[in-house]
């Protein structure tokens, strides 16, 4: 596939790295030669140095008329939109534009964009806010990913002493009718796709697949019954993501937003529901300020400044002050591993979230909701089984499915169920696949 990326910033660089690893024909365009040189040093791709004054020539040089996917992720959303319209008119098959204005995500506006030639609109702040809200709903889980409106749930949990299933071989505790099972384990720097002889040990980061009705029981099994539900949230940083989080808070939750810029505070007051959200003009990294605003009465702390180091340190401070649930926005990929190692709760990275949504457009099968799980360097996705597809011809145990992948569960007629060796997947089933160490397109072949 031929992929053209305009914009060599954080998201563009991450996409270039992702697509080059799966051997795509990639061209990246930017007006900053230093950024292009940095990307070319680590990725197998073509770079084009161009200014916004010569877009047509640059697109022609990039071979836009043969492009299967055109992605515009510059800092200028208007440029992204116009480039996508231009690329589509010049022959690009699919186009994606990154925007920073929430109004552009309105369904009616999106339809207008599609009519103009823009296949998909990506709003990273909304993706990040959705993940944060999911994290706030379960204080005892570090990640929560819902399939088909919650019919199935993937939970990422750090297991500790007190977990009921530690130090027991899976073959002894998991049966075909068990209401949950383990799809992956991160132990140190190693990711394990488990077999019957594996077991959980203290400190493992574990991904469990379960059904909606069993999620409450998981809290007790994991030894997390003492974790409180979230009622009060402290948010540090008043950017766009913070606004989206504040406006998406579930009923029963209230928030305080710390923002050190007075002018931005004035803007925030007009952007959030002040009956539920208090805007505080102060540095949220200050222990004195946090204590003054009763951080000990908060159940969750969310650090959303533009500085990864500051977010990590702020979360560690909040933990020291007794907050159970911490969430940090980490835009620098180099810090993701560090944040996990120092026990930051939930890590949000807009680059990875955006890349997951765009990556979906490369696949041919009925696939949706691809997510990259940075903690275990794996992908998880929902595939819909087509009539006569390979996945429907045999029971799961006879499929010769790649060892690096795990069938987590399926949704049939709106009902979630787990998969075991005796399961026979049917046409139309929505199947959750966990994939580590192999190209997800290799899995796609089983479903088409």
Helix-strand blueprint:
Blueprint: E1 2-6, H1 10-21, E2 25-30, H2 33-40, E3 46-49, H3 55-62, E4 69-72, H4 77-89, E5 94-98, H5 107-116, E6 120-122, H6 124-137, E7 143-147, E8 152-158, H7 170-173, E9 180-187, E10 190-192, E11 205-211, H8 215-221, E12 232-236, H9 240-248, E13 254-258, H10 262-271, E14 277-280, H11 287-292, E15 300-303, H12 308-320, E16 325-329, H13 336-341, E17 346-348, H14 350-359, E18 367-373, E19 378-384, E20 405-412, E21 415-418, E22 430-436, H15 440-444
Parallel strand pairs: 1-2, 1-4, 2-3, 4-5, 5-6, 12-13, 12-15, 13-14, 15-16, 16-17
Antiparallel strand pairs: 7-8, 8-11, 9-10, 9-11, 18-19, 19-22, 20-21, 20-22
Helix pairs in contact: 1-14, 6-9, 6-14
Q: Can you summarize this structure?
A:
The chain is α/β, with parallel strands linked by helices and 448 residues long.
- CA gyration radius, whole angstroms: 23 Å
Instruction: Report the span from N to C terminus.
Output: 18 Å
Strand content: 25-35%
* Total E-strand runs: 22
Choose one word for the global shape: globular
What portion of residues is helical?
25-40%
Q: If helices are DSSP runs of H or I spanning 4 or more residues, what is the number of helices?
A: 15
Which structural class matches the secondary elements?
alpha/beta
């Amino acid at each position: 596939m031929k992929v053209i990326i305009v914009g060599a910033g954080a998201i563009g660089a991450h996409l270039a790295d992702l697509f080059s690893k799966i051997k795509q024909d990639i061209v990246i365009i930017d007006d900053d030669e230093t950024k292009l040189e940095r990307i070319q040093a680590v990725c197998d791709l073509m770079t084009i140095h161009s200014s916004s004054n010569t877009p047509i020539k640059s697109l022609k040089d990039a071979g836009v008329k043969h492009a299967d996917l055109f992605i515009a992720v510059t800092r200028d959303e208007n440029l992204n939109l116009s480039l996508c319209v231009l690329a589509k008119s010049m022959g690009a098959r699919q186009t994606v534009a990154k925007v920073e204005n929430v109004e552009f995500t309105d369904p009616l506006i999106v339809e207008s964009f599609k009519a103009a030639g823009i296949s998909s609109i990506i709003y990273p702040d909304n993706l990040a806010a959705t993940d944060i809200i999911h994290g706030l709903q379960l204080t005892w889980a570090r990640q929560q990913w819902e399939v088909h409106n919650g019919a199935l749930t993937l939970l990422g949990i750090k297991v500790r002493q007190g977990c009921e299933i530690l130090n027991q071989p899976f073959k002894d505790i998991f049966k075909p009718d068990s209401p949950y099972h383990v799809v992956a384990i991160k132990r140190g720097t190693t990711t394990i796709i488990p077999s019957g002889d594996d077991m959980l040990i203290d400190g493992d980061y574990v991904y469990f697949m379960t059904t909606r009705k069993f999620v409450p029981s998981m809290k007790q099994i994991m030894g997390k019954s003492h974790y409180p539900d979230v009622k009060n949230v402290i948010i540090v940083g008043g950017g766009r993501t913070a606004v989206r989080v504040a406006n998406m808070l579930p009923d029963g939750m209230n928030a305080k937003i710390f923002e050190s810029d007075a002018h931005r505070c004035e803007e925030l007051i007009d952007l959030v529901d002040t009956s539920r959200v208090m805007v505080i003009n102060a540095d949220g990294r200050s222990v004195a300020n946090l204590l003054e605003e009763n951080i000990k009465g908060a159940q969750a702390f969310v650090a959303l400044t533009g500085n990864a180091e500051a977010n990590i340190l702020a979360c560690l401070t909040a933990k020291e002050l007794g907050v159970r649930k911490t969430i940090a926005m980490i835009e620098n990929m180099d810090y993701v591993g560090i944040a996990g190692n120092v026990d930051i709760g939930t890590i949000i990275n807009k680059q990875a979230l955006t890349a997951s949504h765009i990556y979906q457009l490369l696949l041919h099968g009925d696939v949706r909701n691809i997510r990259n799980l940075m903690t275990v360097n794996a992908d998880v996705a929902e595939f819909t089984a087509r009539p006569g597809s390979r996945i429907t011809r045999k029971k799961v145990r006879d499929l010769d499915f790649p060892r690096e992948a795990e069938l987590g569960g399926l949704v049939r007629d709106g009902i979630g169920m787990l998969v075991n060796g005796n399961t026979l997947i049917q046409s139309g089933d929505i199947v959750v696949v966990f994939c580590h160490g192999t190209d997800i397109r290799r899995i796609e072949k089983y479903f088409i």
